[in-house]
Design goal:
The chain is mainly α. It contains eight helices and no strands. The longest helix is centred in the last third of the chain and has 18 residues, at about 90-105. It is globular and about 55 Å long. The structure holds protoporphyrin IX containing FE. Protoporphyrin IX containing FE binds next to helix 4, helix 6, helix 7 and helix 8.
Length: about 140
Amino acid sequence: MSTETARTTTIHDLIGGQPVIDRLVEAFYHQMDTLPEARELRAIHAPDLGETKRVLKLYLMQWMGGPTDYSAERGHPRLRARHLGFRIGTAERDAWLLCMKRALDETVAREDVRHAILQAMAPLADFMRNQPDPEDEA
Ligand code: HEM
């Protein structure tokens, strides 16, 4: 019997691991700090983004198939529950994804990989919405 284990290449490995994820998160919050479209999104975040950056780096490392330090430190992500304290509607979702798209463009070399990451993140960002659209209200 073979003792070999199947190894799959993770997104984490494919993009270059922790150094690239660190750059991605720095670029993401730089976009949030500077893009006019993200002004209101930035305003619901803490003034000092140090801890927020640290935690998003850990989360994304785990989400992309890398080391699971996020869950070791914080338990199950329960990401939607953790976002319930913030008003997140379509505008916030779209601004978040715009910052992420621009950050990916800056930091991940391969276009097909950038596309795959954004495709996987879009439903997650949509799931964070906890406010009805204005047009949904009768
Ligand atoms: C869709 C719009 C989103 C908005 C408006 C939003 C907003 C926020 C805010 C305000 C915080 C608290 C940070 C602080 O106070 O500085 C936070 C934390 C966090 N967000 Fe989001 N977020 C969104 C989507 C996402 C998505 C799609 C992900 C994952 C890919 C994500 C991952 C995280 C993580 C990991 C934390 C830290 C949670 C923890 O404390 O463990 N967020 N988010």
